[in-house]
Amino acid sequence: SQVILLCTSILSTEKVLKSLPFPRLKRSTLFVDVLSVKEFPRNAFLQTLPQDFDILCTHPMFGPESGKNGWNGLSFVFDKVRIGMDDRRTSRCDSFLDIFAREGCSMVEMSCAEHDWHAAGSQFITHTVGRVLEKLGLESTPVDTKGYETLLKLVENTAGDSFDLYYGLFLYNPNAMEQLERFGFAFESLKKQLFGRLHGLLHKQLFGIDKETQITLETTGLSTFR
């Protein structure tokens, strides 16, 4: 075969890759992956594949749900990690990419590292929000707003993916941990903002003055609330 397309789960990639009979393959075989993380398969390919094998890392930024009505306008990210310089090999790589371009995909060439940086702030956060909402057990109501319907759709889309995929996005994207921490900090900051305003309101109801005025009086020694 001239092209081998690796469509494994993230967690099984290394096992599958190491099980392939490389001596039986043509020495100029093109290896392509479609994993949702990119630096991980790139490094695995470079470490495992013989030097004369070509490497193309790709990520179709859609799945069964988002792509069920066609791929027109949907992003397809790719990185020509190692492609031989002769016309036959460059033409083969371009022909593979053209399969998606002809379907109307928005073809985006970027490095695997750049992809993982962007994906951690978009795809991983999307999956995280969807799974948090799933744990809330959200259900449709007689008075759903459009915004709430969007949340329900998000839960439906992310719940359709296995937890192994989500775990793979976390484990094999070096930027995912930072995004998860930022998500936690943002939630805590929002709670503090809510409770801070609530505390100020209660203080005003109890003492008839706002919190800022009370602090000013205390610092100037004029407070009667001692």
UniProtKB/TrEMBL annotation:
Alphabetical list of Gene3D superfamilies matching this protein: NAD(P)-binding Rossmann-like Domain (3.40.50.720)
Domain of life: Eukaryota
Domain Prephenate/arogenate dehydrogenase: start-end pairs: 1-224
Key words of the record: Oxidoreductase
Keyword field contains Oxidoreductase: yes
Name of the featured protein: Prephenate/arogenate dehydrogenase domain-containing protein
GO molecular function: arogenate dehydrogenase (NADP+) activity; NAD+ binding; prephenate dehydrogenase (NAD+) activity; prephenate dehydrogenase (NADP+) activity
Taxonomic source organism: Brassica carinata (Ethiopian mustard)
Keyword Oxidoreductase in annotation: yes
InterPro entries noted in UniProt: 6-PGluconate_DH-like_C_sf, NAD(P)-bd_dom_sf, PDH_N, Prephen_DH, TYRAAT1/2, TYRAAT2_C
One Pfam family here: TYRAAT1_C
